[in-house]
Amino acid sequence: MVYEHLEDLLECMTEIQEEFTQPGAISQASSIERMLHNQTFIFWLTFFHHLMPHVDISYNQLQTKQTDPQFVEQVIQSFEASVGKVRENVNKIIEEAGAYPSNSESKRRWKDDMEDSHRIVAIEICDVIFVKFPSKHLTTTIQQYPGLEKDCLQMELSIVYMRPDFRNIQCATPLLNFFLRNNLKESFRDN
């Protein structure tokens, strides 16, 4: 809603500051106007404007009484494809957010660093959404090895599947070497 009416909101905040006499209202309007010109706020507003409709659509589709596994799988695949498109278009989203007027005339290097930071975090958000934790494998493993702590193992596996540097490791030995090489023994300890 804010994204679609950003210009109207800016106009309204300016009008409040010019025409109101109450200091509290003027102060709040001024704060809102500053936020609506903040480059970081605008970027995240734009990013989530592109992402959230897909979340809403998928959520609404999954709230139906239909429990057909094929339907659920189709909804999930469609959602993942949509998030993939958002991920692919992060640079365009950065450009789109940069088209809005900003109060800060930042130095080019600082702006580039900020855009790089936004790009990295936005891509990571999309990657986290993609993480499909194989819960059926966890359940089978816990059944076979009842001495394992399910919650602890699930948390550690979620971290492994979330991080690309872990996710790209294909076998147990390279994973163990990665843990040892990066001094992760304490983080992923035997219980």
Briefly, what is this?
The protein is mainly alpha-helical.
User: Which regions are unreliable across 5 or more consecutive residues at pLDDT < 50?
Assistant: none
* Strand segment count: 0
Q: Label the structural class.
A: mainly alpha
- Assembly type: single chain
Biggest β-sheet description: none
In percent, how much strand structure appears in the residues? under 5%
Shape: elongated
Q: How large is the count of helical segments?
A: 10
Percent helix range: over 70%
Mean pLDDT across all residues, rounded?
A: 80
Note the run of SSEs as H and E.
Answer: HHHHHHHHHH
Query: CA-to-CA gap between the ends?
Result: 48 Å
Written description of the protein model:
The chain is mainly alpha-helical and 191 residues long. The chain has helices at 6-19, 23-37, 39-62, 69-88, 90-98, 108-130, 135-144, 150-162, 164-167, 172-181. Helix content is 74%, strand content 0%.
Topology:
Layout: H1 6-19, H2 23-37, H3 39-62, H4 69-88, H5 90-98, H6 108-130, H7 135-144, H8 150-162, H9 164-167, H10 172-181
Helix pairs in contact: 1-2, 3-4, 3-5, 4-6
List the keywords.
single chain, 191 residues, mainly alpha, 10 helices
